[in-house]
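Lab notebook, bench 4. Still working through the backlog of constructs that have no structural model yet. Next entry is a single chain of 159 residues. Request: give me the structure tokens for it.
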Amino acid sequence: MSRDGYKALPFNGQMDADNKIANQEAFMTDQVRIIVATSAFGMGVDKKDVGLVIHYEISDSLENYVDMIDAQMKESIEAHKISDVEVGSFLSSGVDSSYVVKEMSKNNNVRTFSVGYEEEKYSELKYAQAFAETAGVDNYIKKISAEEPSQAQNSYLSL
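Model written out:
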């Protein structure tokens, strides 16, 4: 694309961390408007003005597509673990956070945290804790009352 006069940068799993960070930052701050990347790039980008995403060479079978998504999820998780401080993850009882935590914990000691209600009938903490134990990760739990979310919202709105 650059040879055709478009200002574009690459982003993929073969790049070193510093170049990936620099290219993502250039994209996020509008220094460059085009990124040529694996699909995993888009999984971690929250940019409201993306007008078009083109998937080139979509998979030829369901099995290959599942393998491609799995590889891209792993690449995205690895890219988001780059940090100067210890990396942790929110752990709910859902499939998405469980997948992320399981992938993160394969090569690292991961700490997770879960928030749930004190009232047992509304809380999913036991499921998150059971998964954390199965995955072999430390899970920190914060129990809150049913009133705390609305109290926090009201105090935030009064600022």
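Notes after review: Strands lie at 8-11, 34-37, 88-90, 111-117, 138-144. DSSP finds six helices and five strands in the chain. Flag for follow-up if needed.
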